[in-house]
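This protein record is not my work; I was only asked to verify it. The record follows directly below this note.
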Amino acid sequence: MFNLKTDLCILLVGLALTLFGCSAVSVSDVPARNWKMSVVTNENSSWTKGARIFADLVKQRSGGQIQIAVYPNGELAGGNQVKELTMLQDGSIDFTYHSNLLYSNLDQSFAAISMPWLFTDYSQVDAALCGPAGSQLLKAAEDHGIVGLAYGENGFRQLTNGRLAVHSPDDLHGLKIRIPDVELYDSIYKAMGAIPVAMNFGEVIGALKQEQIDGQENPIDIIVSSKLYEVQNHITVWNYSYDALILGMNKKDWDGLPGTAQAIIKQAASEASKEQVRLSRDAARTQLSLLRDKGMTITELTPDQVKAFRMTTAPVYAEWSGKIDPVIKKLWETGDLSE
Protein backbone atom coordinates (compact mmCIF):
# COMPACT_ATOMS: atom_id res chain seq x y z
CA MET A 1 0.00 0.00 0.00
CA PHE A 2 1.14 3.52 -0.67
CA ASN A 3 1.63 6.22 1.89
CA LEU A 4 -1.42 8.51 2.01
CA LYS A 5 0.70 11.55 1.21
CA THR A 6 2.05 9.82 -1.91
CA ASP A 7 -1.40 8.91 -3.18
CA LEU A 8 -2.65 12.44 -2.55
CA CYS A 9 0.32 13.90 -4.44
CA ILE A 10 -0.33 11.71 -7.48
CA LEU A 11 -4.08 12.40 -7.32
CA LEU A 12 -3.46 16.15 -7.37
CA VAL A 13 -1.09 15.81 -10.33
CA GLY A 14 -3.68 13.80 -12.23
CA LEU A 15 -6.42 16.31 -11.40
CA ALA A 16 -4.31 19.20 -12.63
CA LEU A 17 -3.62 17.42 -15.90
CA THR A 18 -7.31 16.69 -16.36
CA LEU A 19 -8.16 20.33 -15.82
CA PHE A 20 -5.67 21.23 -18.53
CA GLY A 21 -7.60 19.10 -20.99
CA CYS A 22 -5.99 15.66 -20.96
CA SER A 23 -9.33 13.95 -20.48
CA ALA A 24 -10.72 15.55 -23.62
CA VAL A 25 -7.81 15.38 -26.02
CA SER A 26 -8.59 15.50 -29.71
CA VAL A 27 -6.36 12.95 -31.40
CA SER A 28 -6.20 15.23 -34.43
CA ASP A 29 -4.19 17.64 -32.27
CA VAL A 30 -1.51 15.02 -31.54
CA PRO A 31 1.34 14.81 -34.08
CA ALA A 32 2.64 11.43 -35.19
CA ARG A 33 5.89 10.50 -33.45
CA ASN A 34 8.07 7.38 -33.26
CA TRP A 35 10.32 7.63 -30.23
CA LYS A 36 12.83 5.53 -28.31
CA MET A 37 13.04 4.88 -24.57
CA SER A 38 16.11 3.29 -23.03
CA VAL A 39 16.59 1.59 -19.66
CA VAL A 40 19.84 0.04 -18.49
CA THR A 41 18.22 -2.92 -16.69
CA ASN A 42 16.90 -6.14 -18.20
CA GLU A 43 13.39 -7.22 -19.20
CA ASN A 44 12.51 -8.55 -15.74
CA SER A 45 13.22 -5.36 -13.82
CA SER A 46 10.61 -2.92 -12.55
CA TRP A 47 12.36 -0.25 -14.68
CA THR A 48 11.56 -2.01 -17.94
CA LYS A 49 8.06 -2.95 -16.80
CA GLY A 50 7.36 0.68 -15.88
CA ALA A 51 8.74 1.87 -19.22
CA ARG A 52 6.48 -0.50 -21.13
CA ILE A 53 3.44 0.62 -19.13
CA PHE A 54 4.32 4.22 -19.99
CA ALA A 55 4.70 3.43 -23.70
CA ASP A 56 1.38 1.56 -23.77
CA LEU A 57 -0.49 4.39 -22.03
CA VAL A 58 0.91 7.00 -24.41
CA LYS A 59 0.04 4.89 -27.45
CA GLN A 60 -3.49 4.27 -26.21
CA ARG A 61 -4.26 7.85 -25.25
CA SER A 62 -2.74 9.36 -28.38
CA GLY A 63 -4.82 7.08 -30.58
CA GLY A 64 -1.64 5.40 -31.78
CA GLN A 65 -0.13 8.67 -32.95
CA ILE A 66 2.79 8.46 -30.50
CA GLN A 67 4.70 5.19 -30.54
CA ILE A 68 7.49 4.61 -28.00
CA ALA A 69 9.82 1.63 -28.49
CA VAL A 70 11.43 0.43 -25.23
CA TYR A 71 15.03 -0.81 -25.29
CA PRO A 72 16.22 -2.65 -22.13
CA ASN A 73 19.80 -3.60 -21.15
CA GLY A 74 21.11 -0.16 -22.15
CA GLU A 75 21.15 -1.50 -25.71
CA LEU A 76 21.18 1.92 -27.38
CA ALA A 77 24.21 3.06 -25.38
CA GLY A 78 26.19 -0.17 -25.19
CA GLY A 79 25.26 -0.61 -21.52
CA ASN A 80 26.91 2.69 -20.57
CA GLN A 81 24.59 4.64 -18.28
CA VAL A 82 26.55 7.89 -18.52
CA LYS A 83 26.46 7.72 -22.32
CA GLU A 84 22.76 6.87 -22.17
CA LEU A 85 22.03 10.09 -20.25
CA THR A 86 24.12 12.09 -22.72
CA MET A 87 22.13 10.58 -25.58
CA LEU A 88 18.92 11.68 -23.85
CA GLN A 89 20.29 15.21 -23.70
CA ASP A 90 21.25 15.34 -27.37
CA GLY A 91 18.06 13.67 -28.60
CA SER A 92 19.57 10.38 -29.78
CA ILE A 93 17.26 8.83 -27.18
CA ASP A 94 13.89 10.41 -26.41
CA PHE A 95 13.06 8.98 -22.96
CA THR A 96 14.92 7.18 -20.17
CA TYR A 97 14.54 6.06 -16.61
CA HIS A 98 17.68 7.20 -14.84
CA SER A 99 18.74 7.25 -11.22
CA ASN A 100 18.99 10.63 -9.54
CA LEU A 101 22.60 9.58 -8.91
CA LEU A 102 23.40 9.76 -12.63
CA TYR A 103 21.77 13.18 -12.74
CA SER A 104 24.19 14.28 -10.02
CA ASN A 105 26.87 14.24 -12.72
CA LEU A 106 24.93 17.13 -14.29
CA ASP A 107 24.01 18.94 -11.05
CA GLN A 108 25.36 17.73 -7.72
CA SER A 109 22.14 18.74 -5.93
CA PHE A 110 20.58 15.57 -7.37
CA ALA A 111 22.75 13.60 -4.93
CA ALA A 112 20.97 15.13 -1.93
CA ILE A 113 18.24 12.49 -1.66
CA SER A 114 20.80 9.65 -1.76
CA MET A 115 22.93 10.80 1.17
CA PRO A 116 23.88 7.91 3.50
CA TRP A 117 21.14 6.81 5.90
CA LEU A 118 19.12 9.97 5.29
CA PHE A 119 15.75 8.18 5.13
CA THR A 120 14.50 5.45 7.43
CA ASP A 121 11.33 4.50 5.55
CA TYR A 122 9.24 5.08 2.44
CA SER A 123 6.98 7.64 4.10
CA GLN A 124 9.94 10.01 4.48
CA VAL A 125 10.94 9.39 0.88
CA ASP A 126 7.44 10.08 -0.39
CA ALA A 127 7.16 13.32 1.58
CA ALA A 128 10.48 14.54 0.17
CA LEU A 129 9.82 13.73 -3.48
CA CYS A 130 6.27 15.11 -3.38
CA GLY A 131 7.45 18.30 -1.65
CA PRO A 132 9.13 21.45 -2.97
CA ALA A 133 12.62 19.95 -3.14
CA GLY A 134 11.41 17.08 -5.30
CA SER A 135 9.71 19.52 -7.65
CA GLN A 136 12.79 21.73 -7.72
CA LEU A 137 15.02 18.83 -8.72
CA LEU A 138 12.77 17.87 -11.63
CA LYS A 139 12.75 21.48 -12.75
CA ALA A 140 16.55 21.65 -12.53
CA ALA A 141 16.86 18.96 -15.19
CA GLU A 142 15.57 21.43 -17.78
CA ASP A 143 18.84 23.37 -17.54
CA HIS A 144 20.48 20.26 -18.99
CA GLY A 145 18.12 19.62 -21.91
CA ILE A 146 15.84 17.19 -20.06
CA VAL A 147 12.25 17.46 -18.86
CA GLY A 148 11.70 15.49 -15.65
CA LEU A 149 8.24 13.96 -16.06
CA ALA A 150 7.85 11.87 -12.90
CA TYR A 151 9.68 10.03 -10.13
CA GLY A 152 9.99 6.27 -10.20
CA GLU A 153 12.01 4.20 -7.79
CA ASN A 154 15.15 2.12 -7.72
CA GLY A 155 14.81 1.80 -3.96
CA PHE A 156 16.98 1.39 -0.89
CA ARG A 157 20.37 0.06 -1.87
CA GLN A 158 21.94 -3.04 -0.31
CA LEU A 159 25.45 -4.52 -0.41
CA THR A 160 26.51 -7.86 -1.88
CA ASN A 161 29.93 -9.46 -1.88
CA GLY A 162 31.60 -12.82 -2.41
CA ARG A 163 33.89 -12.88 0.62
CA LEU A 164 32.21 -12.50 3.99
CA ALA A 165 29.13 -11.46 5.92
CA VAL A 166 29.47 -7.72 6.53
CA HIS A 167 28.35 -6.70 10.04
CA SER A 168 30.65 -3.79 10.88
CA PRO A 169 32.78 -1.13 9.19
CA ASP A 170 35.87 -3.25 9.85
CA ASP A 171 34.43 -5.94 7.57
CA LEU A 172 34.40 -3.48 4.66
CA HIS A 173 38.05 -2.49 4.92
CA GLY A 174 39.89 -3.34 1.73
CA LEU A 175 36.88 -4.75 -0.12
CA LYS A 176 36.67 -3.62 -3.75
CA ILE A 177 33.06 -2.54 -4.24
CA ARG A 178 31.64 -1.60 -7.62
CA ILE A 179 29.76 1.69 -7.57
CA PRO A 180 28.05 3.67 -10.32
CA ASP A 181 30.22 6.43 -11.76
CA VAL A 182 29.03 9.11 -9.33
CA GLU A 183 31.14 11.19 -6.98
CA LEU A 184 28.88 10.80 -3.94
CA TYR A 185 29.30 7.04 -3.72
CA ASP A 186 33.05 7.36 -4.14
CA SER A 187 33.00 9.59 -1.04
CA ILE A 188 30.74 7.22 0.93
CA TYR A 189 32.72 4.04 0.35
CA LYS A 190 36.08 5.67 0.98
CA ALA A 191 34.70 7.00 4.28
CA MET A 192 33.65 3.45 5.24
CA GLY A 193 37.09 2.02 4.42
CA ALA A 194 36.22 0.16 1.22
CA ILE A 195 37.82 0.60 -2.19
CA PRO A 196 35.17 1.99 -4.57
CA VAL A 197 35.49 0.97 -8.22
CA ALA A 198 33.38 2.95 -10.69
CA MET A 199 32.07 0.68 -13.44
CA ASN A 200 29.22 0.45 -15.94
CA PHE A 201 26.55 -1.88 -14.65
CA GLY A 202 26.76 -4.02 -17.79
CA GLU A 203 30.34 -4.96 -16.83
CA VAL A 204 29.61 -6.03 -13.25
CA ILE A 205 28.85 -9.73 -13.73
CA GLY A 206 32.04 -10.27 -15.73
CA ALA A 207 34.14 -8.33 -13.23
CA LEU A 208 32.76 -10.39 -10.34
CA LYS A 209 33.45 -13.65 -12.15
CA GLN A 210 37.01 -12.54 -12.85
CA GLU A 211 37.43 -11.35 -9.24
CA GLN A 212 38.33 -7.84 -10.36
CA ILE A 213 35.91 -6.64 -7.67
CA ASP A 214 34.64 -8.26 -4.49
CA GLY A 215 31.12 -6.90 -4.46
CA GLN A 216 28.61 -4.32 -5.55
CA GLU A 217 25.63 -2.38 -4.20
CA ASN A 218 22.12 -2.11 -5.63
CA PRO A 219 18.46 -2.40 -4.62
CA ILE A 220 17.09 -5.92 -4.22
CA ASP A 221 15.06 -5.76 -7.46
CA ILE A 222 18.25 -5.20 -9.46
CA ILE A 223 20.13 -7.89 -7.52
CA VAL A 224 17.42 -10.42 -8.34
CA SER A 225 16.57 -9.41 -11.90
CA SER A 226 20.28 -9.38 -12.84
CA LYS A 227 20.88 -12.75 -11.14
CA LEU A 228 23.73 -11.42 -9.06
CA TYR A 229 23.09 -14.31 -6.66
CA GLU A 230 24.89 -16.51 -9.20
CA VAL A 231 28.19 -14.72 -8.52
CA GLN A 232 27.75 -13.40 -4.95
CA ASN A 233 27.42 -15.28 -1.66
CA HIS A 234 26.49 -12.55 0.82
CA ILE A 235 23.99 -9.71 1.01
CA THR A 236 23.93 -7.06 3.74
CA VAL A 237 20.52 -5.43 4.16
CA TRP A 238 21.27 -1.96 5.51
CA ASN A 239 19.18 0.50 3.44
CA TYR A 240 22.18 2.80 3.32
CA SER A 241 21.05 5.05 0.45
CA TYR A 242 17.77 5.75 -1.31
CA ASP A 243 17.76 5.84 -5.09
CA ALA A 244 14.96 7.52 -7.04
CA LEU A 245 14.37 7.16 -10.76
CA ILE A 246 13.54 10.08 -13.01
CA LEU A 247 11.46 9.48 -16.11
CA GLY A 248 13.17 12.03 -18.32
CA MET A 249 12.32 13.29 -21.81
CA ASN A 250 14.48 15.17 -24.26
CA LYS A 251 13.53 18.84 -23.87
CA LYS A 252 13.51 19.65 -27.59
CA ASP A 253 11.08 16.78 -28.16
CA TRP A 254 8.90 18.12 -25.36
CA ASP A 255 9.00 21.72 -26.55
CA GLY A 256 7.97 20.60 -30.04
CA LEU A 257 4.66 19.17 -28.83
CA PRO A 258 1.30 20.92 -28.50
CA GLY A 259 -0.16 21.15 -25.01
CA THR A 260 -2.59 18.28 -25.59
CA ALA A 261 0.23 15.86 -26.39
CA GLN A 262 2.29 17.13 -23.45
CA ALA A 263 -0.65 16.45 -21.14
CA ILE A 264 -0.98 12.88 -22.41
CA ILE A 265 2.71 12.21 -21.85
CA LYS A 266 2.83 13.84 -18.42
CA GLN A 267 -0.18 11.95 -17.11
CA ALA A 268 1.03 8.64 -18.55
CA ALA A 269 4.43 9.22 -16.91
CA SER A 270 2.80 9.86 -13.53
CA GLU A 271 0.58 6.76 -13.71
CA ALA A 272 3.27 4.45 -15.09
CA SER A 273 5.81 5.59 -12.51
CA LYS A 274 3.33 5.05 -9.68
CA GLU A 275 2.99 1.44 -10.88
CA GLN A 276 6.75 1.10 -11.26
CA VAL A 277 7.20 2.23 -7.65
CA ARG A 278 4.65 -0.35 -6.52
CA LEU A 279 6.49 -3.10 -8.39
CA SER A 280 9.81 -2.01 -6.90
CA ARG A 281 8.48 -2.03 -3.35
CA ASP A 282 6.74 -5.36 -3.81
CA ALA A 283 10.05 -6.80 -4.98
CA ALA A 284 11.89 -5.40 -1.97
CA ARG A 285 9.37 -7.03 0.37
CA THR A 286 9.28 -10.47 -1.21
CA GLN A 287 12.60 -11.22 -2.90
CA LEU A 288 14.84 -11.69 0.13
CA SER A 289 13.41 -15.18 0.51
CA LEU A 290 14.31 -15.90 -3.12
CA LEU A 291 17.89 -14.82 -2.47
CA ARG A 292 18.02 -17.07 0.57
CA ASP A 293 16.71 -19.95 -1.53
CA LYS A 294 19.45 -19.22 -4.08
CA GLY A 295 22.04 -19.78 -1.36
CA MET A 296 22.93 -16.24 -0.32
CA THR A 297 23.74 -15.52 3.31
CA ILE A 298 21.49 -12.63 4.40
CA THR A 299 22.75 -10.23 7.06
CA GLU A 300 20.10 -7.77 8.24
CA LEU A 301 21.78 -5.09 10.34
CA THR A 302 20.40 -4.03 13.71
CA PRO A 303 19.90 -0.32 14.50
CA ASP A 304 23.12 -0.33 16.56
CA GLN A 305 25.07 -1.89 13.69
CA VAL A 306 23.67 0.69 11.28
CA LYS A 307 24.67 3.45 13.69
CA ALA A 308 28.30 2.30 13.55
CA PHE A 309 28.32 2.56 9.76
CA ARG A 310 26.44 5.85 9.79
CA MET A 311 29.04 7.42 12.09
CA THR A 312 31.79 6.65 9.58
CA THR A 313 29.96 8.66 6.90
CA ALA A 314 29.64 11.91 8.90
CA PRO A 315 32.52 13.44 6.86
CA VAL A 316 30.48 12.88 3.68
CA TYR A 317 27.87 15.37 4.86
CA ALA A 318 30.59 17.91 5.64
CA GLU A 319 32.21 17.36 2.23
CA TRP A 320 28.95 17.72 0.32
CA SER A 321 27.45 20.58 2.31
CA GLY A 322 28.64 23.20 -0.15
CA LYS A 323 27.64 21.23 -3.23
CA ILE A 324 23.88 20.99 -2.58
CA ASP A 325 21.27 23.67 -3.21
CA PRO A 326 20.25 25.18 0.18
CA VAL A 327 16.53 24.51 -0.37
CA ILE A 328 17.22 20.86 -1.11
CA LYS A 329 19.76 20.56 1.71
CA LYS A 330 16.97 21.41 4.16
CA LEU A 331 16.23 17.68 4.03
CA TRP A 332 19.36 16.96 6.04
CA GLU A 333 18.10 19.11 8.89
CA THR A 334 14.42 18.24 9.01
CA GLY A 335 14.02 14.86 7.34
CA ASP A 336 10.89 16.21 5.65
CA LEU A 337 10.91 18.63 2.73
CA SER A 338 7.14 18.85 2.46
CA GLU A 339 6.89 21.83 4.78
Observations:
- The chain has one domain: 4-322.
- Residues 4-322 form a domain with the D-Maltodextrin-Binding Protein; domain 2 fold (CATH 3.40.190.170).
- Residues 1-8, 10-25 have pLDDT under 50 and may be disordered.
- The beta strands are 33-38, 66-71, 95-99, 146-161, 176-179, 195-198, 215-219, 234-237, 242-250, 297-300.
